[in-house]
Amino acid sequence: MWDDRIGRRLRLKDLHTLQVVAETGSMARASRQLALSQPAISKAIADMEHTVGATLLDRSARGVELTASGRLLINRSRTIFDELREGMEDIRRVSDPVRGEVRVGTTEPITGFVAEVIGQLSLAYPRITYQVSVSDTTTLVRELRERALDVVVTRWTADSAADDLAAEVLLKAPLAVLADRHHPLLKRKSVSLADTMDQAWTLSPPDSFLGRVVVDVFQRRKLPLPPTIVTTLSVHMRLNLLASGRFLTMLPERMVRQRANRAWLRALDIDLPESRGTIASITVKKRNVGGALKLFQQACRDADRDV
Asked: Is the entire prediction scored with pTM above 0.90?
């Protein structure tokens, strides 16, 4: 009986409406985005609340937000829409097995690796398309769980492991102290991490994923974090600061080998073995994997490790 009730009364269109209302936090904004009247949206929400027997939205003068029951329903509906999307991809693959879309998430330091993988894969399979999101690891993993991404390629640690995620190791990558090729410290015959404490630094926020790794590096050397002039998640911002010739930062050493950086970016001769971390391909467990994603994952395994 309950299954019949769901089939008759809980429509995909209404679930989508609830998602948009939750994302926008406003009936008025949802109305404009969905091209529906506010009364129509209110009726759809009320019908769903009647069907499930629980309040889905809290309404106030500031807008609307999901109740605990609403969050539970939204989390399940994301899986429903993701499965439907994969079903459509399956139908397309019947007629063209090497066609599809891969939604990739990665961090800025790993974009060179991902770009090389996509570049090589696009030669062999030109009908596969890619949406690439670049952000911090915490945000990307949340979007992966919300089914907004198919795979995340990022630095990963054992502490990050979770029961709902699968991590496949692709390569190992240490951090390095990076600088413009004209930085004065590069002229020294020998340099230690302690020698950099009076330099101009730009670093990740210490509570970010990469920031915590950097904090650990300094702590293992019994050093405080150096006075940081610019704290930012943006790797692009840090590289621009390095290009001035004054700043130092700590990022994956492999960034020196990326094509866009080879001419000017250098790593100081400071060995940081304790920073050697895993670059992994992260996916959601028990989720159907389409052909395009399988090809992308295999290309990551086969990629030149010196990219």
From this structure: no
Q: Are 253 and 188 contacting, i.e. CB atoms less than 8 angstroms apart?
A: no
Q: Is the pLDDT of residue 227 over 50?
A: yes
Report the pLDDT averaged over residues 138-147. 92
Instruction: State the total domains in the chain.
Output: 3
Kindly state whether residues 38 and 163 are assigned to the same domain: no
CATH number of the domain residue 120 falls in: 3.40.190.10
pLDDT in tens, 1-47: 445 556 566 788 888 888 888 888 888 888 888 888 888 888 888 88
Q: Identify whether residues 216 and 292 lie together within a single domain.
A: no
**The pLDDT value given to residue 178:** 98
Strands (E), the chain: 57-60, 63-66, 100-106, 128-134, 151-156, 165-173, 175-180, 200-203, 228-231, 247-252, 265-267, 277-284
What single string gives the DSSP state of each residue in 66-85? E-HHHHHHHHHHHHHHHHHH
Residue type, 97: P
Reference 299, options 92, 112, 119; nearest CA is 119
Element (H, E) at 31: helix 27-34
- Is the domain of 220 the same as that of 72? no
Examine the domain organization and report whether 156 and 181 are in the same domain: no
**DSSP one-letter string for 103-137:** EEEE-GGGHHHHHHHHHHHHHH-TTEEEEEEE--H
Interatomic CA distance for residues 238 and 259, integer angstroms:
17
* Strand-pair category, 175-180 with 247-252: antiparallel
Domain that holds residue 15: 2-76
Q: Are residues 70 and 123 in the same domain?
A: no
